[in-house]
Amino acid sequence: MKLEIKDLTVEVENKIILDHFNLEIEPGTIHAVMGPNGVGKSTLSRVIMGDSHYQVLKGDIFFEDESILKLPVDERSRKGIFLAMQSPMEIDGVTNQDFLRTAISQKNQERVGLYQFIQDCEKATEELKMNKDLIHRSLNVGFSGGEKKKNEVLQIKLLHPSLIILDELDSGLDVDSLRIVCQNLQDYMKENPDTSILIITHYRMILDYLKPDYVHIIANKKIVKTGDYHLISDVEKNGYSKYLKLEEDRENA
Amino acid sequence: MPKIIIKNNNLEDQENNFFSIKNNTIILKKSEEYVIEYIACQKIELEIKVAPKVLAKLFIISTDNNLEVKNHYLLDKNSELILFKFYYNYSTKEVTTVDLNGTQAFFSSGFSSISRGNEEYHIIVNHNAKSVTSKIINKCIGLDKSSIILDINSNLEKGNIDCTMDQTSRILTLGEVNATIIPNMFIDENSVEAKHGSVIGGFQEDEIFYLMSRGIPYEEARNLLIKGFIFSNLVVDMEKRAQILSIIQNIRGE
Fold first, then answer.
1. Which helix or strand (DSSP H or E) is residue B15 part of?
2. A94·B215 Cβ contact <8 A
3. B207 and A92 in contact by Cβ < 8 A?
4. Eight-state DSSP code of residue B64
5. Of A15, B18, B150, B222, which residue is least crowded by CB atoms under 10 Å?
6. Phi, psi at residue A194, to the nearest 5°?
7. Best residue in B112, B168, B210 to probe A by mutation, most A CBs within 10 Å?
8. What is the mean pLDDT of each run of 10 residues along chain B (254 residues)?
9. Distance between CA A252 and CA B155 in Å, rounded?
């Protein structure tokens, strides 16, 4: 589904994090966002999801040509936006199963049957090579970093979003687990060709697997450079300094 | 599962293979799972003894009572009591005294409650022998303008070496709740392992955000968290679980 961010200015604690920010994501495309620490990459993901800590001062976000700024977080999610979080919450006492069944039931607007749920879960956990016991444990409590990230992808597989935001999905994942989750995401894209992905990352490996159509560099609160897959090599070789300088020069001019 | 019902403050003397009751003293004789239910009670005073080498699990439930309780638990050598308790009363004043009298005695308590009136709990755990263990976890939800006091006292005198004590209390406030936790440990012995933790507050915003980001509306997210809070501290059968769930589904309070 199409996402359009138009001229967005976002503030948190009296500090502007994104300034006149623009981004368009067409259905079926994969975008990667890279940039130094603290430039607003995670902010971008949380603003799209509707985190009330961040205040939108200007601009708009459209999903399927409809402004979503006034929609609460749960409604954005049910429309098809999914944010795989950098640090998934641990919630003691809420079992993964209870949580997932509630979420699926809300998405489908009808209570999912236990048999169907178990079948879907078993298939998805098997494909992700996850320990099946994790379904019965408290949500993310005592999970390893890799298990938490796999649990995020499990939710994607069960909730069927049309826009997937991966906020540093690769952090905490070993190479084998990263390969498995990326394979699952590739399969998901094949089965749901209209789905778009926005990847926020510092590292190349996840991009080698998912092969983004567009790579954006964020610096100084906005996108300063957009390119294709080859931009990653340039960033790897030369770092972000030239893009930061580019933006400084632009501002000075 | 042996069940003891206390109705209208009355506990009849009885004797069977699992327990004996005489003059409000209950002796748990077998390693079993026991249930005590208070029905239409106002005042209860019990002495509960766990026989030596017995591992007893006990679940106590009380709903819709204005309750005053004074219970005394006594554990002998190598005996264990794993206590789970759930209260949803109009008001409660309870004094629980635990005497760990024999070496290797083990007492653990998981107490969950939903408070809608004035609640006052005083818990006194006396570590009277060497190598005894107490583990107390209290999880209370305060609704509207309720008041909750948790006063926990773990006592250890010199000479009772190698004891372990742990007290953790959390009050989740869903309203203008007056909540107090007093975690005391009176320890006069160097050879001891002791820890405690106390938290009073509402839901974590990040937890709500996470659940809502999966399409779960606020009310439903809140109910999931309440359920998790209560059941993370209880091990109950399906029947009791359903009873507690129906209470959770009907509670309000912001």
1. strand B14-15
2. no
3. no
4. S
5. A15
6. -85, -5
7. B210
8. 92 91 95 94 96 95 96 96 97 98 97 96 98 98 96 98 98 96 97 97 94 96 94 92 90 57
9. 70
List the single residue in A85, A89, A102 with the smallest CB-CB distance to B224: A102
pLDDT of residue A89: 95
Interface test with B, best of A45, A81, A102, A140 (most B CBs within 10 A): A102
Q: How far is CA A65 from the centre of its chain?
A: 20
Residue among B193, B202, B196, B247 nearest B225 (CA): B202
Helix (H) or strand (E) holding B59: strand B55-63
Q: Hey, what are B141's tokens?
A: 């939800």
A32: containing domain: 3-252
Q: Which of A18-27, A243-252, B147-156, B170-179 is predicted with the least confidence, judged by mean pLDDT?
A: A243-252
For residue B252, the model assigns a pLDDT of 57
Looking at the 3D structure of chain A, how many domains does it have? 1
Inter-chain residue contact B220 with A51, CB threshold 8 Å? no
Residue of A nearest to B231 (CA): A93
Provide the 3-class DSSP secondary structure of residue A123.
helix
CATH of the domain at A166: 3.40.50.300
Give the residue among A56, A47, A96, A58 at the shortest CA–CA distance from A198. Answer: A47
- Angle (CA) B179-B181-B184 rounded to 5° is 165
Confidence of residue A240 (pLDDT cuts 50, 70, 90): confident
Cβ–Cβ contact A99 with B under 8 A: yes
Helix (H, G, I), strand (E, B) or coil at B23: coil
Chain A residues whose CB is inside 8 A of the B234 CB are none
**Residue A187 is inside which H or E element, if any?**
helix A175-191
A157 touches chain B (CB under 8 A): no
pLDDT for A220: 84
Q: Report yes or no: A51 at the B interface, CB cutoff 8 Å.
A: yes
Q: Are A164 and A197 in contact (CB under 8 A)?
A: yes
Measured between alpha carbons, how far apart are the two ends of chain B, in Å? 38
Among chain B residues, CA nearest to A48 = B213
Cβ contact A32:A201 at 8 Å: yes
A89 contacts in B (CB within 8 Å)?
Answer: 206-207, 210
Q: What is the pLDDT of residue B78?
A: 95
* A173-201 pLDDT, tens digit each: 999 999 999 999 999 999 999 999 999 99
